[in-house]
Amino acid sequence: MLIFSLIWTLSVLLTEIHSWGFKNGIFHNSIWLEQAAGVYHRESRKGRYQLTYKEAKAVCKYEGGTLATYDQLEAARQIGFHVCAAGWFDKGRVGYPIVKAGANCGFGKVGIIDYGYRLNKSERWDVYCYNPNSKECGGVLTEQQKIIQSPGFPEEYQDDQICYWHIRVRLGQRIRINFLEFDVEDDTDCLADYLEVYDSYDDVSGFAGRFCGDYLPEDMISTGNVMTLKFLSDASVTAGGFQLQYSAVNASLFPQNLQTGPPLIT
Ligand SMILES: *[C@@H]1O[C@H](CO)[C@@H](O)[C@H](O)[C@H]1NC(C)=O
Ligand SMILES: *[C@@H]1O[C@H](CO)[C@@H](O)[C@H](O)[C@H]1NC(C)=O
Predict the structure, then answer these.
(1) Which ligand is nearest to the CA of 50?
(2) Whose CA is nearest to atom 9 of ligand 2?
(3) Ligand 2: which residue has its CA nearest to atom 1?
(4) Domains and CATH numbers, the chain
(5) Confidence of residue 264 (pLDDT cuts 50, 70, 90)
(6) Which of 155, 192, 203, 232 has its CA 20 to 30 A from that of 109?
(7) Which GO MF terms does the UniProt record name (predicted)?
(8) Is the Cβ atom of 252 under 6 angstroms away from ligand 2?
């Protein structure tokens, strides 16, 4: 029964996420990270609604950010930040930003759905962080071309890293990823340390591959003008790390139905 209701809840959440559409060529989703707003949503590695207030603060701090304030969350919402998941924000408040009214999320309302200041800081929610600047481990990248490296590269990366790189190039462009060096702790299914590639602006939809070991992955080309890379290392064993280059390419040079040429992510 519990499993069933969990699956039901998840499917409602996913349906809600996927029912939302495109704006300026970007799919609105649980990690809609806009440099102008700098606000983003995170959940625990263990999944949804697992973070106490203290843990939530640590998640933001880890990525060089802080808990978002109500005003920052609202500013982000006004440019389209829409997430169907309650999270901690500044001063122990909990809520989530809704742009489009929906039956399954936000009680049909639009705005910050505010659960107020929680007296019990041991309650578990997701989190809304604020970080207007990208840092070495992850960030928002809008340049036409850039090298992305595991933290500390060419030194070995550390344990317990989690980095998200959200790449966005111009509308009508696509992103080509070219792996230069790759050495990530190897294990079957890459459950310990890994680099994941998503053909979208978040790590929810468009999963395109998970990589570990020391085999250099093939080049990849996005289908749209956004892409997300996620690097995660666990609490033991590290390795040399990775280095890759992304570059914006003219989409018309890589039509979707091209049979030859670089592999397409579908
Ligand atoms: C606070 O929340 C936690 C997690 O939901 C719960 O286990 C605990 O009993 C709550 N404490 C109080 C005093 O309500
Ligand atoms: C992209 O390709 C189209 C069609 O070949 C061309 O008209 C356009 O100028 C190109 N844009 C860039 C930035 O190269």
Answers:
(1) 1
(2) 250
(3) 250
(4) 36-130 (3.10.100.10), 139-260 (2.60.120.290)
(5) very low
(6) 203
(7) hyaluronic acid binding; hydrolase activity
(8) yes
